[in-house]
Amino acid sequence: MCAVPRNQKQGSTMHLTGRGLKGWRRTPRAASRRGSRHLLDHWPEVVQRLQAARRIALLLDFDGTVVLIEPRPETVHLSLTTRRLMGRLAQHPKVTVCIVSGRRLADLRQCANVLDVRYVGLHGWEWDRKTSSALRAKSWGR
């Protein structure tokens, strides 16, 4: 989450903040020195580039992005709607969906449990061969 000052100027660039996949909203953010661009401000270009891409890798953080952060990590669960959506995306021939987390790989798989989704645990320290080869071959054209 990003705190937004009350005196934020109108017309500044935007970024997404939210809780889980359901609660996304646009909130103002001051532009960086490089003149950062916001994804939704350039949506037609994004759509065009996605349609033209040979492969797409969608890397998602689990806790706080895909699911809400809970006081007790063991109580986190992926909603049925989110599970179905991620499963549909993962079955698309151009798309590799990978969930990355600070959790152990086994715990992450058990919490998410989405068919055809790849998992990376411990902030990148735990990968399995299936995930590693899928990201190399499917997403990067090797």
Strand content: 15-25%
Domain module count:
2
Main beta sheet, described? 3 strands, parallel
Task: Using the coordinates above, name the CATH class of the largest domain.
Answer: Alpha Beta
**Secondary-structure element sequence?**
EEHEHEHEH
DSSP strand tally: 5
Q: Which homologous superfamily in CATH is the superfamily of the largest domain? A: HAD superfamily/HAD-like
Shape: globular
CATH topology of the largest domain: Rossmann fold
First-last Cα distance: 36 Å
Reading side by side through the largest sheet, how are the strands ordered?
Answer: 3-4-5
Mean pLDDT rating: 75
Alpha-beta classification: alpha/beta
Question: Helix and strand layout, with pairings?
Answer:
Elements: E1 14-17, E2 25-28, H1 43-52, E3 56-61, H2 80-91, E4 95-100, H3 105-112, E5 118-120, H4 129-140
Description:
This protein has 4 helices and 5 strands, in the order ββαβαβαβα. It is an alpha/beta fold and 142 residues long. The chain folds into 2 domains: 10-52, no CATH class; 54-140, HAD superfamily/HAD-like (Rossmann fold, 3-Layer(aba) Sandwich), CATH 3.40.50.1000. The strands form 2 sheets. Strands 3-4-5 form a 3-stranded parallel beta sheet. A two-stranded antiparallel ribbon has the order 1-2. The longest helix is centred in the middle third of the chain and has 12 residues, at 80-91. 14% of the residues are buried.
